[in-house]
Amino acid sequence: MTRMTTLLGTAALALALTTAAQAQDTTTEAPVADAPVAEAAPAPTADPAAVVATVDGTEITLGQMMIARAQLPQQYDQFPADVIYQGVLDQIVQQQLLSNSLTDVPARVGWAMANEERSLRAGEVITDLTKAAVTDEAIQAAYDEMVAAAAEEPVKEWNASHLLVETEEEAQAAKDRITAGEDFAEVAKEVSTGPSGPTGGELGWFGPGQMVAEFEQTVEGMEADDVSDPVQTQFGWHIVKLNETRDKPVAALEEVRAEIVGGLQEAVILSKIEELKAAATVTLAEPDAFDPAVLTNLDLLEK
User: Fold this and answer.
1) How far is CA 105 from CA 9, 101, 112, 219, 300, in A?
2) Residue 128 domain-assigned?
């Protein structure tokens, strides 16, 4: 939807909704205490193909209004259905009047409509594909595979603490204090310049790739309760204490459900695209036929 179309729709709805809001302010009564909760009324039905208006012979259908209503922001839900209905109808009628007045249709309008139709049609296919592929059974099966893979090739995680200082000499001095018997956390609180210093240098659990390479290589070669020699990274000099290690636990199904659903959706969509591509004839222009930057030259659309 273009900016001007949005502005028109907003203007058409604003007057009706403002009037309704003012009427509600003067007629709404205080709710009765302990009033029984009314049962939800059944959803009204009608034929989406029913004509609700004509503009110089062009029919406006109930289905068009339904789609326009579905695209309204959630804030409009506070208004009565009859007010929304009239506002949406006014919006579409005004748009049709302006549309009918356009005698010289720019080529860009046709290209935009082609893009919109292509997107809507593709979206319908995607909806059907994902609805069929993403079932409770498929989600559970994908989760079971995840659990099995984690058991077959467990990923190690580390729980470590560190202190960060500017120089190697400062790091070695801190290490000497710890070796002499001082508590690592207390030394870290005193000398560390890193954000974890005030909490004793605690980093919690982390896995491969979550720390800079030098830090990860250090903990990989340590045993629980080991304290490292000074280690230099881009942030400065560290002394690292490895608290414990573990195999990365598998998250509960509900924690990874969204991730699994996304993976199932992506897989079925990509599979369908490859299937369609194999059966289709797709011809592309030569790679150097156009300057890629031409896509930003929107002035060409006005010619």
Assistant:
1) 21, 10, 12, 67, 15
2) no
